[in-house]
Amino acid sequence: MEALIPVINKLQDVFNTVGSDSIQLPQIVVLGSQSSGKSSVIESVVGRSFLPRGTGIVTRRPLILQLIYCPLEDREHRSAENGKPSLANAFKYTFELSLFVVTGTVNAEEWGRFLHTKKCFTDFNDIRREIENETERVAGSNKGICPEPINLKIFSTRVVNLTLVDLPGITKVPVGDQPEDIEAQIKDLVVKYIENPNSIILAVTAANTDMATSEALKLAKDVDPDGRRTLAVVTKLDLMDAGTDAIDILCGRVIPVKLGIIGVMNRSQQDIIDKKDIDEQMKDEAAFLQRKYPTLATRNGTPYLAKTLNRLLMHHIRDCLPDLKTRVNIMSTQFQSLLNSYGEDVSDKSQTLLHIITKFSSAYCTTIEGTARNIETTELCGGARLCYIFHEIFGRTLDSIHPLAGLTKMDILTAIRNATGPRPALFVPEVSFELLVKRQIRRLEEPSLRCVELIHEEMQRIVQHCGNEVQQEMLRFPKLHEKIVDVVTQLLRCRLPATNVMVENIVAIELAYINTKHPDFHKEAALVPSLLKTDTDPYSQSRRANTPRNNMSPQVSSHNSVSQNQQQQSQAQLQTQQQQQNENHEQNHVSENSTGSWLSNILPPAPNRPDSIENSASNTPVHNNMMVSPLKPVNLLPDVPALHNPRRLTDKEQKDCDVIERLIKSYFYIVRKSIQDSVPKAIMHFLVNYVKDNLQSELVTHLYKSEKAETLLNESDHIAVRRKEAADMLKALTRANHIISEIRETHMW
């Protein structure tokens, strides 16, 4: 099982090379409050002093530390890193070690190597300076932090195989040039590493502080409530107050931790200044534990901590390995599909250009016809949107237009009078009906042309939504995409005038000839006479209305003056004369009625306007005043009004208007139904089907030219970068899969 940790180290090298953290590898994450002794614990495990030390915040970038046990007889790492690998090792470790050309490690006991530089460090003071320089290069010289990690490998004959992550210490109050949200930044960085389910949390707490206030244990419990992957380390056992000890803490009586609590003794700041050797510190630690905690000495101390971490990490890797292998296989399949979608490098550009043109034309047509392989299920697209425009938008818009919209009874009456010229209207003239119904039919032209615009816009929109395969090609070759859009736009634009003219002609055809013999309209017109015959004769109504005024009682006039009696007598004489004239006019009217017109058999003769109650009551006194007043000449007439003032219509006028309205409605419904059916057919023939039939020939004519193929098939930088990233990631995953597959079942037990 010792072979598992080097396997994880190799995997970490592979994924660090491509800069990806998509695979969560098992590792040990060290966290704790600032100055709690995290760096001292790591140095004690390594056995060397190589980390930046000091007061305040020192660790300002995550440090991923890989400890690799490398005995002197192990020639695998040493020979490869000496620049003289064997043929077998050269093939096996080319991807991992081709970045480094290192000399002088064959006989070295320990050395370090960073991922960001090819240099090999045998002096650990140089490693410390390199960490400080790299931290300042990225995070700056102030006290700010940076989430970008530093990768360091340490090969030694005295370490156990481990992978540790040293994180910045948790702080509360910003100091120096630190931002105000430094606490939140550090907390987010720590949580990012410890929430990895494949990581082991090493929570470091100083013994001279209260365990109940440990920020490290609190964060660990937040992400690992069961405590299955949390190990606690208590530092500074020698700095506890006199009269106190850590027995209860180390035994787990204060705060229980499932994986255990291990106590260690670190070097003090004065020891660091005096450059006290870590081996000497180990001896002092062992003596302290034997003197202070004799019963717990074998289960505490830095050597026991290193062995415990090695054991926990190996078991944790064993548990995570099946899921890790599955994850690598899934991601390999995903990145292989992604790489295929980006396509391969173009060798024959003319053939590739023709292939893309053919694929686009086919995808465009199948999207319109609804036969595409990948049919959208979340929204309408392609031909379904065209159908929606025809039958929902255009159809409902026409249905919402009322046949008599914008037409008043005075407009109808004016049209009837204008159609008869100087002659009074005896019947409803046919010209007035045609004039009014054409006016209403013209209202259908605007929504019909708007329907053409909507279909044109939708045809243009389909270019951006016709097939995932075509869209990948369009993203890959942006110049070709622009030219294809230009050709389709030009084709649609040149068909737009012809389609508009055809739609306008459809409306003009309906206006050219008003077919009053249309079967549906003829039935409606035949109902009009039956409706008019139900009304009573207006002349009998007029005579009945005038009878009481001709037979007024003489007792009523006995109380009036002599002038009033004379006025009533003259009024009775005038009414008698008017009745005689009306009877003569009625005889003439009946004789004229036999000649007929287009509706002469269904319309009664018009009533005489002076017989109405309103006119007889208002005109008679005015006529008498004009007779008795010598100041106004008799022949003075008022001006002809430009517009009719609102007034009450006579019975004949009301009937004429009702007849015209009934006929306009009937004929308008017929025309609307015809246009509702003809306009979509015209648009499909002149615009949609024409574009479908001629799209590929237009694209070939404008684009398939040898001198243009070179320019059109230039890839965008974005796609080239994405292809390289996908290829590198696929190569790393393939290498990772190969490394995992080398593990035998016997290695895990």
Automatic annotation (TrEMBL):
<dbReference type="InterPro" id="IPR020850">
    <property type="entry name" value="GED_dom"/>
</dbReference>
<feature type="domain" description="Dynamin-type G">
    <location>
        <begin position="22"/>
        <end position="322"/>
    </location>
</feature>
<dbReference type="GO" id="GO:0005525">
    <property type="term" value="F:GTP binding"/>
</dbReference>
<protein>
    <recommendedName>
        <fullName>dynamin GTPase</fullName>
        <ecNumber>3.6.5.5</ecNumber>
    </recommendedName>
</protein>
<keyword id="KW-1000">Mitochondrion outer membrane</keyword>
<dbReference type="GO" id="GO:0016559">
    <property type="term" value="P:peroxisome fission"/>
</dbReference>
<dbReference type="Pfam" id="PF00350">
    <property type="entry name" value="Dynamin_N"/>
</dbReference>
<keyword id="KW-0963">Cytoplasm</keyword>
<keyword id="KW-0342">GTP-binding</keyword>
<keyword id="KW-0496">Mitochondrion</keyword>
<dbReference type="InterPro" id="IPR003130">
    <property type="entry name" value="GED"/>
</dbReference>
<dbReference type="Pfam" id="PF02212">
    <property type="entry name" value="GED"/>
</dbReference>
<dbReference type="InterPro" id="IPR027417">
    <property type="entry name" value="P-loop_NTPase"/>
</dbReference>
<feature type="compositionally biased region" description="Low complexity">
    <location>
        <begin position="555"/>
        <end position="582"/>
    </location>
</feature>
<keyword id="KW-0547">Nucleotide-binding</keyword>
<dbReference type="InterPro" id="IPR000375">
    <property type="entry name" value="Dynamin_stalk"/>
</dbReference>
<feature type="region of interest" description="Disordered">
    <location>
        <begin position="534"/>
        <end position="627"/>
    </location>
</feature>
<feature type="compositionally biased region" description="Polar residues">
    <location>
        <begin position="537"/>
        <end position="554"/>
    </location>
</feature>
<dbReference type="GO" id="GO:0003924">
    <property type="term" value="F:GTPase activity"/>
</dbReference>
<dbReference type="GO" id="GO:0006897">
    <property type="term" value="P:endocytosis"/>
</dbReference>
<feature type="compositionally biased region" description="Polar residues">
    <location>
        <begin position="613"/>
        <end position="627"/>
    </location>
</feature>
<keyword id="KW-0472">Membrane</keyword>
<dbReference type="GO" id="GO:0005829">
    <property type="term" value="C:cytosol"/>
</dbReference>
<dbReference type="GO" id="GO:0000266">
    <property type="term" value="P:mitochondrial fission"/>
</dbReference>
<dbReference type="GO" id="GO:0048312">
    <property type="term" value="P:intracellular distribution of mitochondria"/>
</dbReference>
<comment type="similarity">
    <text>Belongs to the TRAFAC class dynamin-like GTPase superfamily. Dynamin/Fzo/YdjA family.</text>
</comment>
<dbReference type="GO" id="GO:0005741">
    <property type="term" value="C:mitochondrial outer membrane"/>
</dbReference>
<dbReference type="GO" id="GO:0008289">
    <property type="term" value="F:lipid binding"/>
</dbReference>
<dbReference type="InterPro" id="IPR022812">
    <property type="entry name" value="Dynamin"/>
</dbReference>
<dbReference type="GO" id="GO:0008017">
    <property type="term" value="F:microtubule binding"/>
</dbReference>
<dbReference type="GO" id="GO:0005874">
    <property type="term" value="C:microtubule"/>
</dbReference>
<dbReference type="InterPro" id="IPR045063">
    <property type="entry name" value="Dynamin_N"/>
</dbReference>
<keyword id="KW-0446">Lipid-binding</keyword>
<keyword id="KW-0378">Hydrolase</keyword>
<dbReference type="InterPro" id="IPR030381">
    <property type="entry name" value="G_DYNAMIN_dom"/>
</dbReference>
<dbReference type="InterPro" id="IPR019762">
    <property type="entry name" value="Dynamin_GTPase_CS"/>
</dbReference>
<dbReference type="InterPro" id="IPR001401">
    <property type="entry name" value="Dynamin_GTPase"/>
</dbReference>
<dbReference type="Pfam" id="PF01031">
    <property type="entry name" value="Dynamin_M"/>
</dbReference>
<feature type="domain" description="GED">
    <location>
        <begin position="657"/>
        <end position="748"/>
    </location>
</feature>
